[in-house]
Write a structure and sequence with these properties.
It is elongated, with a radius of gyration of 23 Å. The chain has six helices and nine strands; from the N terminus they run H-E-E-E-E-H-E-E-E-H-H-H-H-E-E. A hairpin with an 8-residue loop joins strand 5 and strand 6.
Length: 255
C-alpha cells in the first residue's frame, strides 16, 4: 500500500495536484434561442452534421474550452456565434443537468441557457460551421426526435420563457421604439399561447410605468391608435403579480 503524501502548505499541495487522477465528465452549453415571427413563437435549431446523433435537430451549443473560455457565459456566446452567426444576445441560464445517460459519449453535464431576441435584428448569418440552421415553430420543434436530451432541454427553456413572460417585461424587448398596446399584448399572447384580457393587460402595463404615451398615433384599420414607448431602463422589470389566463377568452376585446 502506498503511503499517502503529506503536504505542508496550500502551494505545495496545488503544485503536486494532478487533475487526471480523477474522472471528469463532458461539459457543454446548450441554448434555446426564441423569437416571434409570422405570428408564432419560433426557436432556432441546428441539424447536426457529425456523429453522434448525426442528422438530428438539436439546440445550438458545444463543449466548454478550458483554455479560452473564462466562464460558462463566454462559452455560450462563443458557441452561439460559431453555430449561428448571432452576436451577443441576452442569455440567461435556465438549469444545469448532468447524468450518465444524456450523451452516448459518456457522463455529461450541460448548462442550459435561453434568450428571446428580435427576429429581424438577429437574422441568421454565415457561421464557421456547416450545420444547417433554421427557425422552427415551437410546437413543431417539440414534436421532433431531437438529439440527446434536447427535447427535455427545450421544454425546460420554453417553460422558463413562459414564466418570465408572466411576471416580467421581457417580451417588450421585441417591440420597435414606438408601438400600440395591442401590438405589445399580441407578443405576450403569442409567447403564452392564449388570449389575455385587454383592459387588465393595459392597466398592468400603465400602472407599473412600463410604458408611456408619446402623443403620437397611427391608423390601425380605420381608427387611430395611441403609440407608446417602453419607459424602463431594462427588460428585467418584475411586475408585482403574474399574468393570469382569463376565465373566458371571449371577454378579450378586439382592437
Amino acid at each position: 500500500m502506498s503511503k499517502e503524501t503529506i503536504h505542508t502548505s496550500e502551494q505545495e499541495y496545488l503544485a503536486h495536484y494532478q487533475k487526471t487522477d480523477y474522472d471528469t465528465p463532458l461539459f457543454t452549453v446548450d441554448m434555446a434561442i426564441f423569437s416571434v415571427a409570422k405570428g408564432q413563437l419560433q426557436v432556432l435549431m441546428i441539424q447536426r452534421s457529425n456523429f453522434p446523433e448525426k442528422g438530428k435537430w438539436a439546440l445550438p451549443g458545444g463543449f466548454v474550452d478550458l483554455k479560452t473560455d473564462p466562464d460558462l457565459m463566454a462559452t455560450a456566446h462563443r458557441k452561439l456565434h460559431e453555430k449561428t452567426g448571432i452576436h451577443s444576445p441576452y442569455l440567461e441560464q435556465v438549469e444545469t443537468i448532468g447524468n450518465q445517460h444524456r450523451d452516448p459519449r459518456g457522463w455529461s453535464i450541460t448548462a442550459l441557457y435561453f434568450a428571446l431576441i428580435d427576429f429581424d435584428q438577429f437574422e441568421i448569418q454565415t457561421s464557421s460551421t456547416t450545420e444547417h440552421r433554421q427557425w422552427l415553430p415551437i410546437d413543431q420543434a417539440l414534436q421532433l426526435d431531437l438529439a440527446f436530451d434536447h427535447q427535455q432541454l427545450l421544454q425546460l427553456a420554453f417553460e422558463r420563457l413562459g414564466n418570465k413572460t408572466r411576471y416580467t417585461a421581457l417580451p417588450a424587448s421585441l417591440m420597435p421604439e414606438l408601438f400600440t398596446l395591442t401590438e405589445l399584448q399580441t407578443i405576450y399572447e403569442i409567447i403564452l399561447g392564449h388570449r389575455l384580457e385587454k383592459k387588465s393587460f393595459r392597466r398592468r402595463m400603465q400602472e407599473a410605468g412600463a410604458v408611456e404615451e408619446t402623443g403620437q398615433q397611427k391608423i390601425v384599420g380605420k381608427r387611430p391608435a395611441q403609440l407608446f414607448r417602453y419607459a424602463l431602463q431594462d427588460y428585467n422589470f418584475t411586475f408585482p403579480r403574474m399574468l393570469e389566463t382569463p376565465r373566458n377568452s371571449t371577454e378579450n376585446e378586439k382592437s
